[in-house]
């Protein structure tokens, strides 16, 4: 099994238009999705992100810091999963409830680098 990261993006206020009932339904579907991945042994971690924070750039001595714009696309959560290959990871991402509640969500599916080919450095595992 290989490790993949799902970077979930949506407008910062993407779920605010949902009614309280729809918000509860969405959270229940997330709970079921997470439960399925856990049962299959494919979930390492998953968390939503609070819609506040900062973006930093630059380097020591010349840092820039700005708040992100909630009206633009922002990362709203992540899943750290196990899958046989990129195709399976994409299939798992397509089942995410994020897509059922609006058309502004996207999930970036990325393999996690475990080792540097040039140096042989092995990155530490999270589990």
Can you give me a brief rundown of this structure?
The chain has 127 residues and is α+β, with helices and mostly antiparallel strands. The protein is built from 2 helices and 6 strands. It has a 4-stranded antiparallel beta sheet with strand order 2-5-1-6, covered by helices on one side. A two-stranded antiparallel ribbon has the order 3-4.
Detailed description of the structure:
By secondary structure, this protein is an alpha+beta fold. The chain contains 2 helices and 6 strands. The chain starts with a strand and ends in a 16-residue tail after the last strand. The relative contact order is 0.30.
Number of helices: 2
**What structural class is derived from the secondary structure elements?**
alpha+beta
Give the terminus-to-terminus CA distance. Answer: 14 Å
- Quaternary state, please? single chain
Envelope shape: flat
Given as residue ranges, the uncertain stretches (5+ residues, pLDDT < 50) are none
| Structural Rg | 17 Å
Strand content: 25-35%
Task: Return the average pLDDT rounded to an integer.
Answer: 90
Strand order of the largest sheet: 2-5-1-6
- Largest sheet data: 4 strands, antiparallel
Percent of residues in helical segments?
A: 10-25%
Strand segment count: 6
SSE run: EHEEEEHE
